[in-house]
Amino acid sequence: METIIFSQKVAEDLGSYIKQLGYSRLGIITDSNTKVHCYPKLGQSLPEHVHFSFEAGESNKNLTTCTSIWQWMTDEGFDRKALIINLGGGVTGDMGGFCAATYKRGIRFINVPTTLLSQVDASVGGKLGIDFNGFKNHIGVFTQPEAVFISDLFLETLSEVELRSGYAEVIKHGLIKSKSYFDCLRTEGWQNQDWRGITERSVQIKKEVVEKDPKESGLRKILNFGHTIGHAFESYYLNTEKHLLHGEAIAVGMLCEAYLSNQKSGLPAQELAIIVEKILGIFGKFEFPEDHISGICDLCSQDKKNEGDKINFSLLRELGNCDFNIPVNKEEIQQAIIYYKSL
Ligand SMILES: NC(=O)c1ccc[n+]([C@@H]2O[C@H](COP(=O)([O-])OP(=O)(O)OC[C@H]3O[C@@H](n4cnc5c(N)ncnc54)[C@H](O)[C@@H]3O)[C@@H](O)[C@H]2O)c1
Ligand SMILES: O=C(O)C(=O)C[C@@H](O)[C@H](O)[C@H](O)COP(=O)(O)O
Ligand SMILES: [Zn+2]
Question: Is the CB of 91 under 6 A from ligand 1?
Fold first, then answer.
């Protein structure tokens, strides 16, 4: 598994790490926002390198942007000893990592996550990929980064909605693996957190799961709680005026899937009520017309946990415990979305 370094002097620590690692050429990938807000924070500490930046946003996590990245690597003459640093959120990490892991069958990369979401979740565990024809992360590979450098210094410039989006994955970690973590989150107001402490605890949970099942043959599916329906919402509204951030979509998905957990995997009604209160209290309700429901349901058919026609969910047994490979039919999914709408 990758080395994870929590650092307060990230520029210096990253500089020394890559020096001892050795490489032929160094390339940094940012998006248009991290180029402005995060790249300058690495300052002069990085040795000679080349830099590629793409237009920020989920709608650019696609093959067209990958083509530009691979072209840049080719034009710069990167060989197999070249090293990439992905400086940005989950979009930069997923796509920059995917491009590195496939260029000349794989060159090394380091993640420097700059959003809460990527610090607590996306930068760790080696799931890389891009969206394809509107389907989330449809094309990708599992390849671990060499290292991940996490610093809350980057969070200073992050907007509140982006911070909140990351908080959805934090809640997910408590719900699937640690009731005591979820209880701590319940008692705190979400905005003024000890982000370093939160990140360490979330990364610990993610790391423990990924170490046991790096390629998602079983247990790792619990990290996907909220994502079967959440990704369907995210995909359905991508490139529309109602588009949802990843964490916002996962918040909707977790509520639908908490309902299914109550129906199908034993989550007690009072625990469902606690989850609803917590998540709605932070994210509010996402409003959408009833005639969108069947289109959203249909998107669940492309989920990567499915086997043939069987749509498999990861559902909670209780707070802090999650089961996986639970088949749910389209009618039940529809009911879950109707339940969400009724809240
Ligand atoms: N691989 C995984 O395990 C995994 C896990 C969770 C999510 N994801 C993926 O991650 C993506 C979501 O990640 P995200 O929320 O980080 O999105 P993102 O990368 O789009 O970043 C969110 C926004 O914040 C901006 N930004 C980033 N850092 C900033 C900073 N420090 N200051 C100011 N602005 C900054 C970005 O430019 C962007 O506009 C989705 O594509 C999701 O599917 C992957
Ligand atoms: O690391 C994992 O495994 C996860 O499922 C973490 C999720 O938060 C993340 O959004 C992941 O990219 C979803 O993966 P996918 O296989 O459903 O595309
Ligand atoms: Zn996620």
Answer: yes
Note the pLDDT tens digit of each residue in 114-162.
999 999 999 999 999 999 999 999 999 999 999 999 999 999 999 999 9
CA distances to 73, 183, 242, 327 from 333, rounded to whole Å, are: 43, 28, 21, 10
**Residues 223-253 pLDDT 10s:** 999 999 999 999 999 989 999 999 999 999 9
Tell me if residue 148 falls in helix, strand or coil. strand
| DSSP annotation string for 319-332 | TTEEEEEEE--HHH
Nearest ligand atom owner, CA of 223: 2
Residue 149 sits in the same domain as residue 170 = no
* Same domain membership, residue 125 and residue 74: yes
Q: What is the pLDDT of residues 260-273, one digit of tens each?
A: 999 999 999 999 99
**Co-location of 183 and 100 in the same domain:** no
Ligand 2 proximal residues by C-beta, below 6 Å: 121, 125, 127, 136-137, 169, 216, 220, 223-224, 227, 231, 304
Instruction: Answer yes or no: do 38 and 132 share one domain.
Output: yes
ipTM: 0.99
Å from CA of 271 to ligand 1 middle: 30
Distance 278 CA to ligand 1 centre (A): 23
Range of the domain at 130: 3-157
Same domain? 135 vs 48: yes
How many domains in the chain? 2
Pairing of strands 312-318, 321-327: antiparallel
**DSSP string covering 203-230, please?**
HHHHHHHHHH-TT-SSGGGGGGTTHHHH
Last residue of a domain, one of 157, 178, 202: 157
Instruction: With a cut of 90, say whether residue 45 has pLDDT above it.
Output: no
Domain boundary among 137, 157, 177: 157
Q: Is 177 in the pocket of ligand 1 (CB under 6 A)?
A: no
pTM: 0.98
Segment 17-31, tens digit of pLDDT? 999 999 999 999 999
The CATH number that applies at residue 202 is 1.20.1090.10
